[in-house]
Specification:
With 804 residues, the chain is mainly α. It is built from 44 helices and 6 strands.
Length: 804
């Protein structure tokens, strides 16, 4: 609340009023600096002295004339001293200094009126007073002239002390300013303004008692200025400092009618509206005023209101003003973070760090938090996309989910694997079948492959992943093993490892086209350059004479990388109803039809998929959505409650299957309000059965995050990590998410650093690390992570608040 008061007097009084009354309403004509050239008042002063210094004949016996001459000399000297001080300092109202806040997106309006404004009284008014005093003297009315000159003297002493105090306030020399404002009070002039500024000085010195005392003193003296045009302005300021914001706004609205005070009133009004969390009105008030450069507060207010485009416009403008450059750039860096332009933010922060290593402790400390759509059903419903097949990750995950595992001998594998729809999810080794004849050893490998696949089919995906990994280390030359290992990683949403093993499988067997295309998908999700692999893939595909070049799924799958759905239309045109379709082919057809707005075709194929996989959670979610996507979100949620409470599904996939099952089902249960119902069911199962307990713990921990049970989620993930020794990157990452939710940033950093040892960070993990390092004011590693993320990344989990 530290800001001084600037007074502008209105000149609307008649000439015959005394000078102290006149100055109460003197109009401001212009603003000048302390170092300005000689003012018109000083020119008048020299003329006055020359006239009075002209020699005059004094009769020896005329004592009155002698007295008059002595009096004139005294008055001339006095007037000279008085009139030197005729340049009047008055203060413009300055908004109190606060720290802008963008996250929750709290932004306090900044004080950018740091210069001391010095004003002077309208020349004609002062001339009239001086002329009147001279005229009284010439007429011999010495007593009246003395009284008027004395009033001038008192007035100038008061203003001199007052203005000096203002200058000292601006230099933060509050002790000296206090002495001058007290002197101004003793001279019985400008009591209200001086008392307000005394309160401000004591506020800055941390003396609340004296702050309150001088505000009350200002209120005591205020009635004496009841006829002043500044009465409402004074009262508005006092109400503002005492925290009576609606009352202050009412007074300032009246002050808006005074031309010279419109700017100050609008600016202070904007400050009050900011404090009242009314950003739109604050912005409107700032745009109305023309007295101050308001780019910085406008940028902060637009950021707070979520209009980041406008925020960037004004912050970039403010960053070109030297006095505001550092603060504006620091705010701009956070706006770039909010809009997913992480590399842009990193470059701004790097520039600030070069100039000042401590910049992170000066402005806008942040706190990493989970996104609001995780915390609120209403927000989750607003953000829920009823067109579920959107976004690359979701599309790729659906294709990974419905993709087949591969074996060397399909007949042998079918005897070993327990799965009703096995034919839909397993493929035999199609190339170079002579290997099966030449090497009996492959039969033994096939048994081990089948056992690992059986684990995956029975929703022990992590265990299957470990078995495939062990096999890859023994039989490192077989593309089938690397492909299966990669597929488990992809279904677990570990795209870095998935891309590695899909690439290995493809290079071991260039005819394993699914491995090639999936390697490109995973590299796309991991933000890796796939150009070389894509070119190699296309060359091999075009050179394969055994393929129908006009209609093969691999060529059209590649169009997904560029989201070129139009290029997939020929594939849709050549669909044959009589041909058997695998789940992967059906899912791709659904994706292609959805991308081309062919709703009927999409819905027909979703129905086929659901009939093929009747108890599968994903196929049922897609089917329900296709039937109800035209409903409003509230009706949609009610229908979802009825459908999923009354449909028998295989929920084991939720406990130990692919990540897309967990993500899709939990999101749907969140918007329906059934999340706690599912959570309680899992708890009951966990307490009564040891079967698949690890999968149940995984499911419960994940659901706890969305149910805002962060501490329980954090505890459960620690059990998985410490007791069950599960330390894959995904588990460590989700444990870090729970740690952030439960306000354990240091634990979150440690978990994410452990995840780095297991696997190269995902973009989500990089963002979490960047925000956490930023939070603890360690900007250099934060900047490193932001640079690695690049621009245009949208996080599922994380955002940040401003905490100071």
């Amino acid at each position: 609340m530290a800001e001084e008061i600037t007074l502008k007097e209105q000149d609307n009084q008649e000439e015959n009023k005394n000078f102290s009354d006149l100055t109460e309403n003197t109009e401001v004509e212009e603003q000048v600096s302390l170092s300005s050239s000689t003012s018109p008042e000083l020119e008048k002063e020299r003329t006055f002295q020359r006239v009075e210094d002209e020699p005059r004949q004094i009769p020896q016996k005329d004592e009155k004339k002698l007295f008059d001459k002595k009096f004139l000399i005294v008055i001339s000297i006095l007037s000279g001293l008085i009139l030197i001080l005729l340049t009047i300092l008055i203060l413009l109202t300055v908004l109190k200094k606060e720290n802008p806040i963008i996250i929750n997106d709290n932004v306090f309006l900044d004080d950018n009126t740091s210069n001391t404004n010095i004003t002077k009284i309208k020349q004609s008014a002062l001339d009239l007073v001086i002329q009147k005093a001279n005229l009284l003297y010439e007429k011999g009315d010495v007593e009246s002239a003395l009284e008027l000159y004395n009033n001038i003297n008192i007035f100038n002493q008061s203003l001199s002390s007052y203005n000096l105090g203002v200058a000292q306030m601006k230099q933060k020399d509050y002790a000296s300013a206090i002495e001058n404002f007290k002197h101004s009070l003793e001279l019985e002039e400008h009591k209200v303004a001086a008392a307000i500024n005394l309160a401000v000085c004591y506020f800055n010195l941390g003396d609340k008692n004296k702050f309150d005392y001088y505000l009350e003193l200002a209120k005591v003296h205020l009635p004496h200025d009841s006829k002043s045009s500044l009465y409402d302005y004074y009262l508005g300021l006092i109400n503002y400092y005492q925290g009576f914001y609606p009352e202050a706004l009412q007074m300032l609205t009246r002050t808006n009618n005074i031309d010279d005070y419109q700017g100050e009133s609008y600016y202070l009004g904007a400050k009050i509206y900011t404090l009242l969390n009314s950003e739109k009105k604050a912005i409107d008030f700032l745009l109305k005023q023309e007295d101050y450069e308001a780019s910085l507060p406008l940028g902060l207010l637009y950021a707070r209101s979520g209009d980041y485009s406008k925020a960037k416009e004004y912050l970039e403008k403010a960053s070109k003003i030297d006095s505001q450059a550092e603060r504006s750039k620091a705010a701009l860096a956070l706006v770039e973070l909010k809009t997913g332009q992480y590399n842009n933010s990193a470059q701004i922060l790097k520039t600030l760090l070069v100039k000042d290593k401590d910049v992170s402790s000066k402005y806008y400390g942040i706190k990493a938090v989970l996104k609001k759509n995780i915390l609120s059903i209403d927000i989750a419903q607003q953000n829920f996309a009823k067109k579920l097949i959107t976004g690359k990750q979701q599309i790729y995950d659906l294709l990974f989910y419905f993709s087949p595992y591969r074996v060397f001998d399909i007949r042998q594998s079918m005897e070993l694997i327990t799965k009703a729809d096995l034919g839909n999810f397993i493929q035999g080794y199609e190339y170079e079948n002579e290997l099966l004849v030449k090497s009996k050893a492959l039969s033994g490998v096939n048994v081990e492959l089948s056992h690992a696949i059986n684990l995956a089919f029975n929703f022990h995906l992590r265990e299957a992943n470990q078995e495939f990994k062990n096999l890859s280390e023994i039989y490192h030359a077989h593309d089938v093993i690397h492909y299966n290992l990669a597929l488990t990683y992809a279904q677990l949403q570990d795209y870095n490892n998935a891309s590695k093993y899909f690439s290995t499988a493809y290079h071991l067997n260039p005819k394993n086209y699914l491995a090639g295309i999936f390697a490109i998908f995973c590299m796309d999700l991991a933000e890796k350059d796939y150009t070389k692999l894509a070119n190699e893939f296309l060359e091999n595909l075009q050179a394969d004479k055994a393929l129908n070049q006009n209609h093969n799924i691999y060529k059209y799958l590649l169009y997904l990388v560029k989201s070129d759905f139009t290029a997939m239309i020929p594939y849709l045109d050549n669909l044959s109803v009589s041909n058997h379709k695998t789940p992967l082919e059906l899912m791709f057809t659904i994706v292609a039809a959805n991308g081309n707005n062919l709703d009927k075709l999409r819905n027909d194929k979703i129905k086929e998929l659901k009939e093929l996989l009747e108890k599968d959670i994903i196929s049922n979610i897609l089917y329900f959505n296709s039937k109800n996507m035209n409903l409003d979100i509230k009706s949609y949620a009610k229908q979802a409650q009825m459908y999923f409470l009354n449909t028998k599904l295989n929920y084991n996939s939720l406990f130990g299957g692919a990540g897309i099952v967990r993500d899709s089902y939990v999101t749907l249960m969140q918007i329906t309000g059934l999340l706690n119902h599912v959570r309680n069911d899992i708890k009951k199962q966990l307490s009564t059965s040891n079967k698949n307990s690890i999968g149940l713990i995984f499911a419960l921990a994940y659901i706890d995050i969305f149910a805002k049970e962060y501490q329980e989620a954090y505890t459960l993930y620690n059990i998985l990590i410490d007791d069950y020794k599960i330390k894959d990157a995904q588990t460590l990452f989700l444990a870090a998410v729970a740690a952030i939710g439960s306000n354990n940033p240091n634990s979150a950093i440690a978990l994410l650093e452990l995840a780095r040892l297991e696997n190269e960070e995902t973009l989500e993990a990089r963002l979490a690390l960047g925000l956490l390092y930023h939070e603890v004011q360690n900007l250099e590693p934060a900047v490193f992570q932001y640079e690695k993320i690049g621009n245009n990344f949208k996080s599922k989990f994380f955002t940040f608040d401003i905490r100071n």
